[in-house]
Amino acid sequence: MRDMKRRKFLQQSALLAGGISFNNTLLHAIAPDKKIKIGIIGCGDRGKGMMEIINKMPEQFKIQGICDVLDFRLKEALPYSASATLRTKDYRYILDDRSIDAVLIAPPLNMHFQIAKDALLAGKHVYLEKTMTYNIPEAIQLIDLAKRYSNLILAVGHQYRYTPLYFRVKEMIEQNYLGKVTQIDCRWDRNGNWRRPVPAGYTDEQINWRMYKEYSGGLPAELLSHQMDFINWAFETHPDEIAGTGGIDHYNDGRETYDNVQVMFRYNEKGMIGNFGATCGNARDGYLFKLKGTKGTVQMLMDDAVFFPEAKTKKELETVDGVTGATKLEWNKEGGIPIVKEKMKDGTWYALDEFYSCVREKKTPLSNVMTGATTAVCVHLSNEAIFSHSIQLWKPEYNF
Fold first, then answer.
1. Which of 29, 201, 294, 374 has the most CB atoms at less than 10 Å from its CB?
2. Which of 84, 22, 99, 17 is CA-nearest to residue 47?
C-alpha cells in the first residue's frame, strides 16, 4: 500500500514539476484549407475586440460584413473591418448575403435569441456571445431550433472551455489533485459605475443597456456567467438550489440592474457550495476564482493559476520528490505550485480557433447550445433569486 501511494505521488509530482504543460490535442489545430467569411452583428466593445482577434487569424477568417444599429459604432468598427464589403444597420442584410458563411453575434443580451434564430433560418453558422439567451424559454426554443438545423454549428462564447489553462484545471479535478472539492469562491469586482458616456442623439438605454432589466442580465450575465459555466463543465454538474441578494448600493443613478450582487449555488450531487459575487464599489480582488478541496486549492486568474496543497499533501509531495529524485517542484513564495509556464493567447483566440475547426469538420463545439442553455438557466435563476429574495430550485426540464 505504501509503494502504491508513493508511485501515485511520484506521478503527481512529476506532472507538477513539469509546469503542467498544455495538452495540445485539446486545441484542435488543423491546417486551414478555406477561409470562413464571417459577418459581425454588434460592433460594441466586445464586437470590436473579437474583430481585432479575427484579424490576427487571416488564414481562417475574413470579415465580410459588419452591422450595428448605432452609426457611431459602425464608424468605430471601420479600422477593424477593412476587408468588409457590407456595412449595415440592419442585420438581415448580413443574413441575406450568400457570400457570408457564419455570423458572430454580440449585441445586447435581449437581442441574442432573435438574431441567432434568424441566422440559423438563413443557413448561417453561429458564434453567439454569452450569455446565450436572455431567459429560459428562449434557451429552450434555441435548443429545439438548433436540433432542426443540426447541419449548422452554433457555438456559445464561454471561452474558458477552450483555454488550455482551464482545460488543465479540469484535468486536475478529474485526476483528484484537489481531493473532494466542497467550496468554490468566485468574484469579479471593479471600482467604477460601469457607465459609458452617451453621445448626442442617443439614449442612455441604447448606450448603457447593461443597466436596464429590459436589455440585460446585469452582473450575473455579463461577468459571473463565465465562472458559473466553468463549474458546470469542470464538474459535469449544475446547481440544485440558488439563493441570492443584491442592490443598487452605491450608484443611485437611475440604473435598474444591481451594482452589488452575491449568489450562492448548492450542488447537491457533488456536495459543493459555489459563491459568485460582483461589486462595482471595490476593485481589490478584481477577478478571483478559487476551488477548495481536501487535498489543495487551485487559485485562478484568466491566464494564470497556482495549486496550493494542503499541509499533508504538501508533505507527501515533498517526501516523494526527495526520495525518488523526481524533478524539483517549483514553489512560489506563498507556498504554491504554478500550474502553467507557457504564455497563453487571449481566451477568445482559442474559442474562435475551435469555432473554425467545428465549422470545417462539422463537429459539436465544447460550448454549444446545450451547455449554453444550462448556463443561461443558471444566470436567469440567479437574477430571479436576487430580485425576488427567494430560493430558486432547478427543475427537471432544465436538464438539457
1. 374
2. 84
d(CA 280, CA 134): 22
d(CA 16, CA 338): 8
Task: Please state whether the peptide bond connecting residue 131 to the residue before it is cis, i.e. omega within 30 degrees of 0.
Answer: yes
> Higher confidence at residue 387 or residue 31?
387
Residue 278 phi/psi, 5-degree rounding, is -150, 140
| Phi and psi at residue 243, to the nearest 5° | -120, 150
Three-class secondary structure of residue 203 per DSSP: coil
Predicted pLDDT at 344: 85
- Mind listing the pLDDT tens digit for each residue in 265-321? 999 999 999 999 999 999 999 999 999 999 999 999 888 899 999 999 988 887 654
Q: How far apart are CA 309 and CA 319, in angstroms?
A: 13
Give per-residue pLDDT as tens, 196-226.
Answer: 999 999 999 999 999 999 999 999 999 999 9
How does DSSP assign 294-324, residue by residue?
A: SSEEEEE-SS-EEEEE-HHHHHHHHHHHHHH
CATH homologous superfamily for 24-160?
Answer: NAD(P)-binding Rossmann-like Domain (3.40.50.720)
| Residue the block writes with cell 435563476 | 381
What per-residue confidence (pLDDT) applies to 20?
Answer: 42
DSSP 191: B
* Whole-angstrom distance, CA of residue 354 vs CA of residue 166: 15
Please, where in the chain does CATH 3.30.360.10 lie? 2-20+161-193+201-343+367-398
**311 Ramachandran zone, left/alpha/beta (phi>0; psi -120 to 50):** alpha
**From-to residues of CATH 3.40.50.720 in the chain:** 24-160
The whole-angstrom distance between residue 133's C-alpha and the CA centroid of its chain comes to 14
Looking at residue 337, the DSSP 8-state letter turns out to be: E
Q: How far apart are the C-alpha atoms of 203 and 207, rounded to whole Å? A: 7
